[in-house]
Automatic annotation (TrEMBL):
GO terms for molecular function: ferrous iron transmembrane transporter activity. This is Ferrous iron permease EfeU. Its main location: membrane. It is a multi-pass membrane protein. Pfam families: FTR1. It is found in: Membrane. Keywords: Membrane, Transmembrane, Transmembrane helix. The chain crosses the membrane at residues 6-27, 39-60, 72-91, 107-129, 149-170, 182-204, 274-290. InterPro entries: FTR1/Fip1/EfeU. One of its GO terms (cellular component) is high-affinity iron permease complex. Belongs to the oxidase-dependent Fe transporter (OFeT) (TC 9.A.10.1) family. It comes from the Bacteria.
Length: 307
């Protein structure tokens, strides 16, 4: 959970910091620094709003738990988070190529229209989007205990690293390759999204919301294979395996629970869990490939027009 919190916080905070940094840098470049205070007003309001959303989520999730409906809310949050994380990977793969130019154009339009409220609204929306997404993702990876993720070392170090990277980007004389950061974090976020998908499928099959093509003679969801002897997905599974067989698994359950939280590892997946997990990666890779080809085609057309 700590590693997931770290990656999510780092990615979301870095994007917000970069965009706000571009706004402030551009205002300085065009000698309009008087607008800086309104940018910071928007940022502070967005942080307050994001914290408020976290409190609402915590309250709602607790209420659902007491009503015995937490599983349904968990499934919904996991699936929506999977979609949002996937969209983030695809969106940032495209937007990071010219992030600064797009932000500067937007600020120029805002200043043309004029008004402090416009500047506050823009900086507010930039930060609150990242804040709300962070809250949503935290709800997904913790099963609703958002406070646990907010207080983890992962969230703290993710925020600190994002601040350091953002500061270096705008202050250092060396050009930091943000594409590399986004590419690396995109890989990890894609893994988290795939893990959330397979966990949602597993819960749906456990409570009977989703069927299976392979059942045991007793009518239960059948397992495609069983790797408990190699690496149980939880310390409790390790204890049970040791009790039933008298043998110690090759890798202990503490490692298994890490891979389950981070990658969606399952010691005995159903056919649907296995197929959907790898199909997810295949679809994302295909979409990224199509996006790259489309970008290369546009560049070629622009180069031909320039020639």
């Amino acid at each position: 959970m700590d590693l997931q919190s770290f990656l999510i916080t780092f990615r979301e905070a870095l994007e917000a910091i970069l965009i706000v940094g571009v706004i402030l840098t551009y205002l300085k470049k065009i000698e309009q620094k008087q607008w800086n205070k309104w940018v910071w007003v928007g940022v502070v309001l967005a942080l307050i709003a994001s914290y408020g959303v976290a409190l609402v989520f915590q309250t709602v999730l607790t209420g659902f738990a007491t009503m015995g409906s937490q599983n349904y809310l968990k499934i919904g949050i996991m699936l929506v988070s999977c979609v949002l994380l996937s969209h983030m990977v695809l969106f940032m793969s495209q937007q990071s190529r010219n992030l600064q130019g797009k932000v500067e154009n937007k600020i120029t339009a805002i200043l043309t229209v004029g008004g402090a409220l416009n500047m506050i609204a823009h900086s507010f929306l930039v930060v609150v989007r990242e804040g709300v997404e962070t809250v949503f993702f935290f709800a997904a990876i913790t099963g609703g205990d958002i406070q646990k993720a907010l207080q983890s070392w992962g969230a703290l170090f993710g925020l600190l690293l994002a601040i350091v990277i953002g500061w270096l980007f705008f202050k250092s004389t060396k050009k930091i390759q943000l594409k590399t950061f986004f590419r690396i974090t995109s890989i990890f976020l894609m893994m988290i999204a795939g893990g959330l998908l397979v966990q949602a499928v597993g819960i749906m099959q456990d409570i009977g919301m989703m069927g299976t093509v392979y059942k045991t003679p007793g009518g239960e969801v059948g397992e495609l294979y069983n790797l408990t002897a190699i690496m149980p997905e939880h310390p409790l599974d390790e204890v049970q395996y040791l009790r039933d067989t008298g043998n110690q698994p090759l890798i202990n359950g503490q490692v298994g629970i890490f891979f389950k939280a981070f990658l969606g590892y399952t010691q005995n997946p159903s056919v649907e869990e296995f197929v959907l997990y790898w199909a997810f990666y295949l679809v994302i890779l295909i979409l990224l490939g199509m996006q790259k080809k489309r970008h290369e085609k546009v560049n070629q057309e622009l180069n031909q027009d320039a020639a």
